[in-house]
């Protein structure tokens, strides 16, 4: 069953095509959705519910992978491509500053969940920082990458991403479509290869739903 999973890495090869943008934006929306769910749970005093904690752990896992791909594999390529151009390097510095802010906020949420305290303000601060970061990526950093990287650089990035993410594909696909609006669900799923869609329908999504992430 491992063959179809390798399709996920191919999505990064054509950075300007609809598929790549669809998947990028869908992942960003899923990160927003998860933190909105955590805000709602914390507001209701249920932020430490077992399924909420499981949803939070799933969020962290996918968020770390998402940003490791870019920090270790994509942005260094962009940095080499822009050379000493100050404006372009400032865009990358902004993204790194966002990461430097988000990491400690995730740690603070972990600490409050573990040790007690008021969860809501910490989660709201993290949600705000995430929004700023995702907007920076979508508006500035990703267009910069598209403008400076040659096709062979995208292909190399795709190959590395495929190796790094292959085992998480059965988690990623159903996570993205969890609670998504029908039109967005259709757009995302139809951007995937048919074997991946079928695996998601038959195996991945039913397994994901049994986890009851974020239920209170």
TrEMBL record:
It comes from the Bacteria. InterPro entries: Hemerythrin-like. This is Hemerythrin-like domain-containing protein. It comes from Actinomadura meridiana. Pfam families: Hemerythrin. CDD domains: Hr-like (cd12108). Residues 23-137 form the Hemerythrin-like domain.
């Amino acid at each position: 069953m491992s063959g179809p999973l390798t399709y996920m890495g191919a999505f990064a090869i054509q950075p300007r095509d609809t598929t790549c943008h669809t998947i990028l934006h869908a992942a960003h929306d899923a990160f927003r959705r998860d933190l909105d769910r955590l805000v709602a749970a914390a507001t209701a005093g249920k932020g430490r519910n077992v399924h909420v904690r499981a949803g939070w752990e799933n969020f962290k896992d996918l968020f770390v992978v998402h940003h490791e791909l870019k920090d270790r594999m994509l942005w260094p390529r962009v940095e080499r491509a822009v050379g000493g151009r100050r404006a372009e390097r400032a865009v990358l510095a902004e993204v790194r500053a966002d990461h430097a802010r988000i990491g400690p906020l995730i740690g603070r949420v972990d600490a409050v969940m573990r040790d007690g305290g008021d969860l809501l303000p910490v989660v709201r601060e993290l949600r705000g920082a995430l929004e700023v970061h995702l907007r920076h990526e979508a508006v500035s950093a990703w267009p910069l990458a598209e403008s400076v990287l040659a096709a062979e650089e995208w292909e190399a990035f795709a190959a590395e991403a495929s190796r790094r993410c292959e085992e998480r594909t059965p988690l990623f696909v159903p996570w993205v479509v969890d609670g998504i609006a029908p039109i967005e669900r259709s757009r995302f799923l139809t951007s995937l290869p048919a074997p991946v869609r079928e695996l998601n329908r038959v195996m991945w999504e039913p397994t994901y739903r049994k986890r009851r992430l974020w239920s209170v």
